[in-house]
Design goal:
This protein is α/β, with parallel strands linked by helices. Helices cover about 35% and strands about 25% of the residues. The model has no long low-confidence stretch (mean pLDDT about 80).
């Protein structure tokens, strides 16, 4: 595929492994779900970052999404009462995008 500029991985493991072929040359993979300690592969070490909760950063990301600068891929949306089903759907994998919970 190789047409994505950035993959932001929040799952790690096999999902992180499947992310590398998706990015085009010069693209980046960033993960918050893997540890860099003891990893010898440089691309994995470069992908790792520590995340701290910061509402101003989340607000800035929301602005970039609203402006169309960042695109979010949502495979399927579930109501909060369907959270168990949503988790099961995400666990099955084989989808492009994330599962979202709608809180009304």
């Amino acid at each position: 595929m190789c047409d994505v500029d950035l993959v932001f991985d929040t799952v790690g493991g096999e999902t992180l492994d499947r992310s590398w072929p998706l990015v085009k040359p010069g693209g980046k993979v960033i993960t918050i779900a893997a540890q860099s300690e003891g990893v010898s592969e440089q691309r994995v070490r470069d992908a790792f970052m520590i995340v701290e909760a910061d509402s101003s950063h989340l607000a800035e990301i929301a602005k970039l999404i609203d402006a169309g600068v960042l695109r979010v891929f949502v495979a399927e949306t579930f109501s909060l009462s369907e959270a168990v089903e949503a988790y099961a759907r995400a666990a099955r994998g084989k989808m492009r995008g994330k599962v979202a919970l709608e809180v009304v």
